[in-house]
Write a structure and sequence with these properties.
Blueprint (H helix, E strand, L loop, with lengths): L4 E4 L3 H9 L2 E6 L5 H12 L3 E9 L3 E6 L2 E6 L3 E8 L12
Antiparallel strand pairs: 1-2, 2-6, 3-6, 4-5
Length: 97
Amino acid sequence: MSQIIIKPIITEKMTAASEDLSRFGFMVKYDANKLEIKHAIEKLYSVKVEKVWTMRYAGKSKSKFTKNGLISGRSGAFKKATVSLAEGETIDLYSNI
């Protein structure tokens, strides 16, 4: 079940949301649904999840110029989940850094 959650998203925007609104962001498997995400986070962090929002991001085209010419590629697609926790619940993402 913990294979659903790939990694937490730690950015300025998500840190502000976690402090103000008790919302946390995670990068999750592309085919995971909201119920699977909710159960995985509740099991992994021992918290009560109230609401889950999911967003799918398509991969972007990338290109760069090198000595050997133009190299084109594509970054991978990913799915992001934002979860809202119950009143008084929190997740300490910085404890094992």
